Amino acid sequence: MPDTPLRPDQCDWLIAVAVLTLLPHASHLPAGLSGICVLLLIWRGAIARGKGSMPGRWTLLALAVVLIGFVALEFRQVFGKEPGIALLAGLMSLKLLETNRVRDGRAVVLLSFFMQLGQFLYRQDMLIAALALSGSVASIAALSALQGAALDVGRRIRQAALLVLQGVPLMLVLFVLFPRVQGPLWGLPADAYNRSSGLSDTMAPGDMARVSQSAEIAFRASFEAPPPPSAERYWRGPVLTRFDGHVWRQIRTPLREMPAYQTQGTAYAYTLTLEPHNQRWLLALDFPAAAAGLRYTNDFQLLAREAVTARQRMNLVSYPATPVGLDESPLQLRLALALPPSGNPRTRALGEALKARAANPAAIPELAIAHFRQSGLAYTLEPPALGQDDVDSFLFDIRQGFCEHFAAAFVVTLRAAGVPARVVTGYQGGELNPIDGSFVIRQSDAHAWAEAWLPGRGWVRFDPTAASAPRRIDGGLAGALPDSVGVPLLVRTDLAWLRAVRDRVDALNNSWNQWVLGYNPARQQELLSSLGLGKNGLAELTALMAAASAVVMGGLMAWALRRRSTDDAIDRAWQLFCKRMAAAGLARLSWEGPVDFGRRISLARPDLALQVEAIVNDYTRLRYAPPPGDDAQLKRFQDSIKNFHAR
Amino acid sequence: MPIHLCNRLLDAAGEIILGKDRALRLAFACLLARGHLLLEDRPGVGKTTLAHVLARLLGLEFQRIQFTSDMLPADILGVSIFNQHDTAFRFHPGPVFCQLVLADEINRATPKTQSALLEAMEERQISAEGRTWPLPTPFFVIATQNPADQIGTFPLPESQLDRFLMRIALGYPDRAAERLLLAGEDRREVLASLRPALAPGELDTLFAAARQVHVAPRLLDYIQDLLAHSRESAGFSLGLSPRAGLALIAAARAWALLAGREHVLPEDVQAVLPAVAGHRLRAAGDAPASPEALVRSLIEAVPLRG
User: Fold this and answer.
1) Which of A403, A405, A506, A618 does the annotation list as catalytic?
2) pLDDT value, residue A628
3) How many domains does chain A have?
4) Residues A362 and A498 both lie in one domain
């Protein structure tokens, strides 16, 4: 029995499973290999349709050698993730060409299950999960086709889906309770390092504009209470103090365990979910209160202890109104006044002129902002190349720039006027996703602004970009630019439907990230203690998992045993029949006997008479004739009802 | 085998009693269940003919007793008379000592006489002069009563009605059947020439077969549901007795046998229920529900599981 030849429907199922399994892999397989797989599958399909016969052993061997050679040439090796998956994909297609028995068919199904898993080695998003799920359902359907009698496709799929559904409770138990290791579910070390976009720890003209081209998500923030207004949503990244005339750099400062300020004013509690960027900065809203396990720099950055290489989630509280740097060290202030020995003469002159006009140093920044606004500087995502002296060239000649030009020019002006100042980079604003109420901050929200130190007030934020292009702060990048040319499609605000779709997908992705991919030991502990299970060690978790699995399995088994009782099987099938008739407009009356019911149906629907007569006959025999009811009769009865459709 | 016998009986009877298939079938079922039959209908619709036909076809001895108001129990049961020859009382069996007794117009007799017959029906023996005389086997009584004629009659009380397995009405024949009746030859001659449809011993085969018809647990559930509802529902002042339950099963078995089946279906129970329960149920209050409507309401109130 196990080695019977394949029926045509079984063969079709196997080919379908192979196609469904290999299709999602096509995106990362070498094109040539995908082509080979397609050809092999078409060949097998043609054989199944009676065109040609199965290839001989030597042909297969030759094909296998060619396949391995191809993979080896393509990847320069046959081990590792990429060549391994490629090899398996090819061999799966090849295996079908020698599969004309049920036993080989099982091997193909097994391989397809493994290939479902293989998809997750590349990506772990919801689409892949959905693809793997549908592939698994198809594989199970194929397995049951190998096992049982021919069945129409819809019923086969329903059956397989039901099997998968029955596995869901166990899957949940294992997912929730299996002892977690730190790190993402499927994270491979390479995943975080290939990220190219995002902020960097230096800034030169054009850098921020380049970052802004990307619609990629930098992080998400969901506030517990009403969020701060857009004008206060400055997410602090690297603070750049050192300036060499062209590039802005950070200065090294010692790290503290506690912030160097006393928080004041309104508190905003929020959850930050950071996409991995392979840097330590955490992009907190100004200015975060102390939180365990994090580090604070003297220039008020919040840092992680290690570079963020996996999606990270943390709960923070920020106080935007906190005064900071009231007693800043003279060294810091001196660094914040330093200008290269030469260069940008016109800007220096502007600074000195402002200093002369100002009644006191505290008025200088406002004067500078006013001057910027009056000089008609244009905000553009595609700033033209600057001349010899960047700042002079921007302020006096070209007069077009992106936020980094504004911030840099402002800081240089202030320093020339004797006011300590520095550039702060990070993100500004963010877009509210109406679906789940969280803010999404994309790379296009990257921003650079300035901080000036004023006696008695400490470090005060000034945003020269906002002065020239106020809509940048209120309406986001796309709102501030004259037309939406050059803005990434997903960031454009003028396409409402696109935004709605994007918001929805994004909210879904966010929950997926939070609850599936981001389900780490901390989250597990959090969930378990919210269920009242307290702190759990590895042993307790294992015991809990075993117990929960036993409960689930026991429940499923009890269900299966209950369903197996013959009496119920007869009733169930009969009730299904009655249900189908009711759907066709002929409901059985509560007191109506089966024969009377059958007669009524035959009168109303002569087309069904024969079928119904057979069903009623079987039913009355099984139900009312002396036992033992014949198993074959019960099977026939159930089958005849399953195949019965009144429409 | 039994199905051939049954069909033979039904066909033969159907040739004489025209257009009354259902009543005939019920009457046969009643006898196959070894129960007594009460025919309640107007005169002239063929009650007596039916009794005759049944007796003839089944090959039973037949005796007709016309009940009158001046009738005494001894007129039915028999009487002990002093025999001078051997100087002792000797029992002279009455007309009840017969396999099939037609008790015509039973409601004309006094309750005393009625109860003498009904006790004989139940006991299937006669007690007189301190001795008991068994009645012949099988022993059937087919009683008739005329519902329209109320003057000078003694309607059977409920407790006595319970002894009849079934009560059926014949009703007037439909137009086509009546035409055949009118155009055909004399019924009496046909009746006289009627031969038993069963060979000796075949009736016993049928009795045995009827007893062996299978009653599934699910069907017993259904019968118990029916009994329980008749007792608990506010719609009935008098529910069905356990004896009614036994009668229902016996009648349903016989009905299934006549259909050639070896197991009882809910439809069999529903088919015999009007005849079996119609004379045993009483509607609550003074709602003048007909027995048919009453039984119908019982059937429709009890759901059939499945």
Assistant:
1) A403
2) 64
3) 3
4) yes
Catalytic site includes residue A37: no
> What pTM did the predictor assign?
0.48
Mutate to test the interface with B, among A591, A599, A633 (most CBs of B within 10 A): A591
Task: Count the residues in chain B.
Answer: 306
Higher-confidence position of B147 and A101? A101
Please identify which of the residues A207, A390, A447, A506 carries the catalytic annotation.
Answer: A447
> Which one is the CATH code of B3-204: 3.30.1490.20, 1.10.287.130, 2.40.50.360, 3.40.50.300?
3.40.50.300
- State both tokens at B251: 């009648």
Contact A593 B267 (CB under 8 A): yes
B16: alpha, beta or left? (left if phi > 0; alpha if psi -120 to 50): alpha
Interface touch A625/B214, C-beta < 8 Å: yes
Does position B235 have pLDDT exceeding 60, yes or no? yes
Asked whether residue B109 carries a pLDDT value surpassing 70, the answer given is yes
> Do A358 and A310 form a contact (C-beta atoms < 8 A)?
no
Residue A475 host element (H or E): helix A471-480
Residue A232 confidence (pLDDT):
83
Check A286, A299, A389, A463 and give the catalytic one.
A463
Interface confidence, given as ipTM, is 0.88
Q: Return d(Cα A646, Cα B7) in angstroms, integer.
A: 36
Taking the C-alpha atoms of residue A108 and residue A310, their distance in angstroms, rounded to an integer, is 35
Q: Annotated catalytic, A578?
A: no
The gap between the terminal CA atoms of chain A, to the nearest Å, is: 37
Nearest alpha carbon to residue A278 among A241, A312, A240 = A312
A194 in a structural domain? no
Candidates B216, B218, B304; nearest CB to A592:
B304
Residues of chain A with pLDDT under 50: 1, 184-196, 484
Q: What pairing do the DSSP bridges indicate for beta strands B36-40 and B164-168? A: parallel
pLDDT digits (tens, 9 = 90+) for B123-140: 888 887 778 888 888 899
Q: How far is A569 from chain B (nearest CA, A)?
A: 11
- pLDDT for A260 equals 82
pLDDT at site A602? 92
Look over chain B and give the mean of its residue pLDDT values, rounded to a whole number.
Answer: 86
Q: Which residues does B64 contact at the CB level (< 8 Å), separation at least 6?
A: B48, B51, B95, B101, B102, B104
Distance of alpha carbon B213 from alpha carbon B257, whole angstroms: 7
Look up the domain containing A551 and give its range: 539-642
Is the Cβ pair B265, A595 closer than 8 Å? Answer: yes
User: Are B267 and A596 a contacting pair at CB < 8 A?
Assistant: yes
CB within 8 Å: A623 and B300: no
Take residue B217 and report the two structure tokens written for it.
């647990």
Residues from B contacting A (CB-CB < 8 Å) are: 214, 216, 218-219, 262-267, 270, 299-306
